[in-house]
Amino acid sequence: MSVVVLRNFEDRLERLVEGAFARAFRSGLQPVEIARRLERDLDTGRTLDAKGHPIGPNRFVVHLSSPDFEKFGQIQDSLRLEFIAAVREHAQDRGLLFLGRVGVLLVEDEQLRTGRFRIDASFADGEVEGSVPAYLEVDDGQRISLGAQVAVIGRSPESGVFLDDPNVSRHHAELRPDGDSYVLVDLASTNGTWVNGVVIREHRLSSGDMIGVGQQSMTFHLL
Question: What separation in angstroms does the CA of 55 have from each of 50, 125, 147?
Fold first, then answer.
């Protein structure tokens, strides 16, 4: 991983563990240690496909001690997304391809001591456990994973993508899975929904599209 990529990962991680989780991550196993091991396992596990293209393992199972699993479990979904992003960015730097989506799964291993972990890396095609189809990157660097269900964007606390902004309607827009991407649908919001600076009612998203909702902007990423 390049220095810039690593710094971005650490910056996002610092924001992620602020507040209630800060004390838990002051000492002991740090998520960045896992990210570095994932990169190393990606390098050592690389091989060539039938056409001679370099490919890397895309399924990673991270075994954690019971105390570390409990600690990491508080923000597991966000951590998995950061780990997946770290693997994909490192693969891009190395010119590696994948057979399918990258998946990172955190599991508890009672035989491991606190601070110890191991990773099983393998190749998998089709649906990969622990993978994330897509995510939104908010202005502050927060990443919100998207799954196979419809996600509502809005000011309502029950929203899948909650935005605390008075300019955002309670149920502002929906992200609907559609084949290999998502369709963004405005729900008759008060202030409208924008994609790449253009107001939309319904829009099929491409990776890199900029979504504007109220005073918030988000970047859509396909994985």
Answer: 10, 12, 25
Cβ(105)–Cβ(42) below 8 Å: no
Whether 44 contacts 119, CB under 8 Å: no
DSSP codes of every residue in 77-110: HHHHHHHHHHHHHHHHHHT-B-SS--EEEEEE-T
For residues 196, 198, 199, 204, the Cα torsion angle rounded to the nearest 10 degrees is: -50
pLDDT digits (tens, 9 = 90+) for 4-53: 444 565 565 555 555 444 555 566 898 989 999 999 999 999 999 989 99
Q: What is the b/e burial string over 144-161, where b = at least 16 CB atoms within 10 angstroms of the residue's CB?
A: bbbeeeebbbbbeeebbb
Cβ contacts of 189 within 8 Å, gap of 6 or more: 168, 169, 172, 173, 213
pTM: 0.71
- Burial class of residue 219 (count of CB atoms within 10 Å of its CB; 0-12, 13-18, 19+): middle
| DSSP letter, residue 43 | H
pLDDT tens-digit series, residues 159-200: 999 999 999 999 999 999 998 899 999 999 999 999 999 999
